[in-house]
C-alpha cells in the first residue's frame, strides 16, 4: 500500500509519517514546504502550485492520502487551491484522510455530534480564515469524494515522535520556568487530544476500510484552565502557578465557549484509546 502524507514535517504529520514508516507493508512518501524538513527523505512541494503538484501526484499514485497541512492566515488558499486540486486527482479507489477541526462548529454549545450542522464565523472574526476554510474543505470533500475520512480534533497536545511539543504547552513551560504565573480561562471547554493517540488513530484509518466523519479524542472534555493545570503538574510545577483567567479579558462571543466533541463514534471503528 502506498501512502502519501502531506504536511509530514509538521507537528502531527511528522508522527503520522514516522508511524507509517514503521508499518510493515506500507510504502510512505511525505511532503514538506519550508526548509529544513524534519526528515531527510521528504519531497519539497507547495500544494498550491498546480503544475508541480500534478507532477508529484502522478509520479506517486498513492492508495491513501493523509492531509495534515495547515497554513494559518493562508488556510483559505490552501483549501481553494491545494485541496480542490487534490480532489481532482483522487480516484474513487484512493482514500483521503483529512484532518479537520472542532472550529467547524461556531453555533450552539458542545458536545457536538458528527452530524451536527457546521457553521462559519463572521468574516471579520480573527479566527475566521482558518475556521471557515475548514468548513469549506469539509464541504468540498463530501461533495467531490466518496472514499474519505474526515477526522475532527480539538487542540492537539504533547510531544510528537520527533520530540516537538505543541506550542501551548511550550509557552506554558517557558513562562513557568521564568517564574511567572499564568492564567487560562475556565469557561472555554475543548476536547484535547494527545498527538500520539491522534497519529495512531490516523494510521488505523489509513489501513482500514472505514469512511465517514469522526470526532477524535477522549470522552472527557475540559477547560483550558484545567488542561494547563494538568500540564503544569506533569512538567513538575505546582498547579497553583496556573490561575483562572478573566472571562472578560478576551471575550469572544462568536466562538462557542464549549466546542467539546462527542467522541463515542470513533470507539467503534478504531482500537486506539485516547488518553485524557
Ligand atoms: N495543532 C492543533 O491543535 C490542531 C487541532 C485540530 C486540527 N488540526 C489540524 O491538524 C493538521 C496538522 O496540524 P499541525 O498542528 O501539525 O500543523 P503544522 O505543524 O503547522 O503543520 C502543517 C504542515 O503544513 C505544511 N504546509 C503549509 N502550507 C503548505 C503548502 N502550501 N504546501 C505544502 N505544505 C504546506 C507545513 O510545511 P512546513 O513545515 O514544511 O512549512 C507543515 O508541515 C492540520 O490539518 C490542522 O488543521 C490541528
TrEMBL record:
Highest taxon above the source species: Bacteria
One Pfam family per UniProt: RmlD_sub_bind
UniProt domain RmlD-like substrate binding: residue ranges: 93-271
Protein name as it appears in the record: NAD-dependent epimerase/dehydratase family protein
Record organism: Lentibacillus salicampi
Lineage, uppermost ranks: Bacteria, Bacillati, Bacillota, Bacilli, Bacillales
